[in-house]
Design brief:
The complex is a heterodimer of chains A (about 400) and B (about 375). Chain A is of the alpha/beta class. Chain A has 14 helices and 15 strands. Chain B has two domains: about 120 residues, Aspartate Aminotransferase, domain 1 (Alpha-Beta Complex), CATH 3.90.1150.10; about 240 residues, Aspartate Aminotransferase, domain 2 (3-Layer(aba) Sandwich), CATH 3.40.640.10. The chains are: A alpha/beta (about 400), B alpha/beta (about 375).
Chain lengths: ~400, ~375
């Protein structure tokens, strides 16, 4: 029995003349993420993509798990590909869905016939297959309204396909079709969710992390890599830029009034992120800010940090509550990693009473005690890079 | 040397041994230490965890390292029974499980649990219907091995799990996959299991390490208590060197699996056709068994005598499970074999290192043994 994965693409199907660009990107993403499982054949026909394993011991569970996380896939299912012959169709349906049919009480057969030359109509296919399954499984009766098992027969151009209910895909637009953007990631709950949401809209992600050794540890950096690695199940591989931030943070501590320190720090982060983003071809920054969540995320604060950025900054979580963000982070399985208790650069030297309504005009004076350009350039020059990927 | 006792244990692969040495001497820190030596050891464990989780098609957090298959099986049975004791008191295991399952089940009997031992059918497999018949509202756990360690029968664990859950949706499914892991695909999702046991030393990694898969959301109680390691599910400083070696060996096994499988299928066929030409020999493994294991009875020479005769020629096989230490095999008895068949049974188990000439040497040895040794009745 030849088992394949049938993939239906949703929003992509509406893309008109660009459709094949989007489909190809989706297939490329699937291929790349499945490479470690073995050889696969990917084909597209009739707004459906089929993935066919070429190795004997191919892990179909893992493959389905991968497909469920590829943006651009609206629904998918495991299916059996067979000759378009009623005898074969009946027998294969009984055998292929054995594990479900053996124990169910009710079922229905659903036929889709896109090959209109096929001798039987859809209702006739349903009747034939249904009758055969009833004769094979005495535990079954037909329930067309709420069956336990749906047996779906799709008769297409070249082959027939048998499967049961299909699974929802990750939706969205294939990652990489919308250009590149740089995610600022600290290690908390929000930034991975923000990155996930923008990748869902087709962006390819790079990431920038600010580390302050010895105040932050190897494990804190490893935590960031773990978060990114988990995200790559959805986003594909991510290039991580790790900036050594200790010197800047120490100078801020020593020279800047405590109440301004967080915002001055964030302005440095934005300046450095802008420079590195430009170098790596990122057209936007992404942050996990949510309006009013903390002092540095009030509207006046965001105005002050945005003022030093020339690139647009996407803040997909800006209007979301913490619970909504947590729900997504649990879904993409970054939550448990995020809550590991390691110091990150944002929790080092936190002021007791940070300004929540800063004035943009204050910063010129506040920051005049530091050689901004030299510090930013040094940080950019000493940045360390590596690719992170779960595959 | 002709080593054909790979179901008992395997030689440690060079790469796995090198990894163990490297971790022992270079990353010897306590994996829980905050400093960089601890961090390095932790990273080694993490890498191994990632590799093994991927081989089992599960999440990294669903994997707990143990001291081996026996501890994993014990944790699965005793831990599940304890955690779910309020839900019921019935456990179902197959009658030809490894002793670490059977004995854990017997221990549960002394603690007031009812244990049903389901016998294999004529084909050497556990029938899903037989298991389902035994399941009731009080049933907590079903434990059926994937590949039997003595005859190589491969059970349809997915179908057994589905059948059991049909009777009682809350039943936990445990599978001892020690003899299957690294040899045939063991994908936890497809098998439909909540708990699954694997061991390192059957796949060319060191002894003393194994793992238990515990599906996310499945509650089981720990067997031992101590520090914060492995979410307190299995405390104690991790055996980083062996775990790292386990990861390396697992990676090798997964990569070589298709090639190794077809090679061993050929070796196994060669052995079986050779054995069939010898008068009186009965093959106990069915044709659809896992080719890594071939069990047969000479019907003439006692297993132990045969073993020692072959050993003198530097050929190593086994009479049954090494863990039984010479006791009459409960597996073969379970299959309804005659006493003569049980007493003269031989288990040959392959690894990818074996060759056709190994098989031929063994066949020659068996023929000589049957020609020269005193026959029993």
């Amino acid at each position: 029995m030849k088992e394949i994965i049938l993939i239906k693409n949703g929003e992509i199907a509406l893309k008109g003349l660009n459709r094949s660009t989007f489909e190809d990107a989706m297939i490329k993403n699937i291929r790349r993420r499945m490479a470690h499982l073995g050889k696969v054949d990917a084909k597209k026909a009739q707004s459906t993509v089929t993935i066919e394993p070429k190795d004997e011991f191919f892990d179909m569970d893992a493959a389905c798990d991968i497909v469920s996380k590829v943006f651009g896939v609206s629904a998918f299912c495991r299916a059996c590909e067979i000759e378009k012959d009623m005898e074969t169709i009946k027998k294969t349906a009984a055998e292929y869905l054995k594990n479900q049919l053996s124990f169910a009480k009710t079922f229905k057969v659903l036929a889709k016939r896109s090959d209109k030359k096929f001798p039987l109509t859809s209702p006739e296919i349903c009747r034939e297959v249904g009758g055969y399954l009833l004769s094979k499984y005495h535990n079954l009766s037909v329930d067309v309204i709420d069956p336990e098992v749906s047996v779906v027969i799709e008769v297409r151009d070249k082959f027939a396909y048998i499967h049961s209910a299909q699974t929802d895909g990750a939706g969205g637009i294939p990652t990489g079709t919308g250009g590149r953007a740089m995610l600022l990631i600290s290690g908390g709950i929000d930034s991975p969710v923000a990155g996930y949401m923008m990748a869902k809209r087709g962006l390819e992600l790079s990431a920038i992390h600010f580390a302050s050794p010895p105040y932050t540890s190897e494990r804190a950096l490893e935590k960031v890599k773990d978060l990114l690695r988990q995200m790559t199940h959805y986003t594909g591989r991510i290039k991580l830029y790790t900036v050594c931030f200790t010197k800047i943070q120490e100078q801020i501590r020593d020279r800047v009034k405590e109440e301004y320190s967080t915002l001055v720090m964030r302005r440095f982060m934005m300046r450095i992120a802008n420079k590195i983003a430009e170098k790596n071809g990122s057209l936007a920054l992404i942050t996990g800010e949510s309006l009013g969540q903390v002092a540095s995320q009030t509207l006046p604060s965001i105005q002050c940090t945005d003022a030093v950025s020339t690139l647009p900054t996407f803040r997909p979580l800006i209007g979301m509550d913490k619970e909504e963000i947590v729900a997504i982070s649990r879904k993409i399985e970054t939550f448990d990693i995020s809550v590991q208790p390691f110091e990150d650069c944002c929790t080092v030297f936190t002021p007791k009473h940070p300004k929540t309504k800063p004035n943009l005009s204050d910063f010129e004076k506040v920051e005049s005690v530091m050689d901004i350009e030299a510090l930013v350039n040094e940080a950019v020059e000493t940045v360390e890079t590596e690719f992170v990927s779960a595959f | 040397m002709v080593y054909l006792d790979n179901s008992a244990t395997t030689v440690v692969s060079k790469k796995a041994a090198e990894k163990a040495l490297y971790v022992m001497t270079e990353c010897f820190g306590n994996p829980s230490s905050l400093h960089t030596l601890g961090f390095k050891a932790e990273q080694e464990i993490k890498t191994a965890r990632r590799i093994i989780a991927s081989a089992l098609s599960c999440r990294e957090g669903e994997l707990f390292f143990t001291s081996g298959g026996t501890e994993s099986n014990n944790t699965a049975l005793l831990g599940a029974a304890h955690a779910h004791r309020r839900r019921g008191n019935k456990i179902i295991v197959s009658s030809y499980e490894h002793s670490s399952v059977i004995e854990a089940a017997k221990e549960l009997e002394t603690r007031g649990f009812e244990v049903v031992y389901v016998k294999p059918d004529k084909s050497g497999k556990i029938s899903p219907d037989d298991v389902a018949r035994a399941v009731d509202d009080k049933t907590i756990l079903v434990s059926v091995m994937l590949v039997n360690n003595e005859i190589g029968a491969v059970n349809d664990v997915a179908l057994i799990a589905a059948a059991a859950r049909r009777k009682n949706a809350k039943v936990l499914m445990h599978c001892d996959a020690v003899q299957a892991f690294g040899r045939i695909p063991v994908h936890t999702g497809r098998l439909g299991v909540d708990l699954l046991t694997v061991s390192a030393h059957k796949i060319h990694a060191p002894k003393g390490v194994g793992a238990l898969f515990v599906k996310k959301g499945t509650k089981i109680s720990p067997l031992i208590f101590g520090g914060e390691q492995q979410n307190k599910m299995r405390p104690g400083t991790e055996n980083a060197a062996s775990i790292a070696a386990f990861g390396v060996a697992c990676d090798e096994a997964v990569r070589n699996m298709p090639a190794a499988y077809s090679k061993i299928k050929e070796l196994s066929n060669r052995l079986v056709s050779g054995l069939k030409e010898i008068d009186g020999v009965v093959i106990n493994s069915t044709p659809d068994a896992c080719p890594y294991i071939v069990n047969f009875s000479s019907m003439a020479v006692k297993s132990e005598t045969m073993l020692h005769f072959l050993e003198e020629r530097d050929i190593y096989i086994s009479g049954g499970s090494a863990c039984a230490k010479g006791n009459r095999s409960h597996v073969l008895t379970s299959l309804g074999l005659s006493n003569l068949a049980v007493d003269t049974a031989i288990r040959v188990s392959f690894s990818a290192d074996n060759t056709e000439s190994d098989v031929d040497t063994l066949l020659g040895g068996i023929k000589d043994a049957l020609n020269t040794l005193q026959k029993i009745k």
